[in-house]
Amino acid sequence: MSTALVGALTLATSNLRNQGIGTSRLVAVNLAKEGVEFVRGFRDSNWLANQDWDIGLVSQTSTSCAVIESAMTAFTFVSDAICQGEITDAAYQMYRTSAGRYYQGGTESTEKVANMFRKIRLQSICLAGDIESVQDENICPNDTQKIGVQVVSEVRWMYGDAPSSTNVIEKMYNWR
């Protein structure tokens, strides 16, 4: 009887843990998708306003890493040093409101710190003749034309002591 009880308890504990892992993974994948959709929204809004397609998607330096501001209206580009560093840097920290909304740019004193980090990398897609290349920076070399942007939205999280991560990668072109 004790063997059956221990088996049932082990199964229940395992099910609860797997449910938590699945929930965390679902949230992380959706946050990664949101990063890509945010970039697409910027590109499309620029087109509708008859502006250059990449306004707001290019930093004034060579850095290609960004976070979405908490108001969900713009990007904040991070320094090259932070861009080359770990995704677990405080700049990429996600926060969660009491209503369950995740965002970046919060403060620990006012919101709950989530165990998730999101890094959005905007890499230029450049064309030289018939050869397309993706640059690590958001600037194309002088002899090439910028034709798009590759968006890499990475989310990393911890569940217990186990780190996990997911990426959503999409190429978006200036097709207009």
Task: Please give a structural write-up.
- By secondary structure, the protein is an alpha+beta fold.
- It is 30% helix and 35% strand.
- The protein has 2 helices and 8 strands.
- The chain has helices spanning 2-48, 80-84; strands at 65-68, 75-77, 93-96, 102-104, 112-128, 131-134, 145-159, 162-173.
- Strands 1, 2, 3, 4, 5, 6, 7 and 8 form an 8-stranded antiparallel beta sheet that branches.
- The termini are far apart.
Beta strands, count? 8
Helical coverage, percent range: 25-40%
* C-alpha Rg (nearest Å): 20 Å
| Count of helical regions | 2
**Euclidean distance between termini CA atoms:** 71 Å
**What general form does the structure show?**
elongated
Biggest sheet character: 8 strands, antiparallel
Query: Approximately how much beta-strand content do the residues carry?
Result: 35-45%
Roughly what is the average pLDDT, rounded to an integer?
81
- Our count of domains comes out at 1
Low-confidence runs: none
Which structural class matches the secondary elements? alpha+beta
Order of helices and strands: HEEHEEEEEE
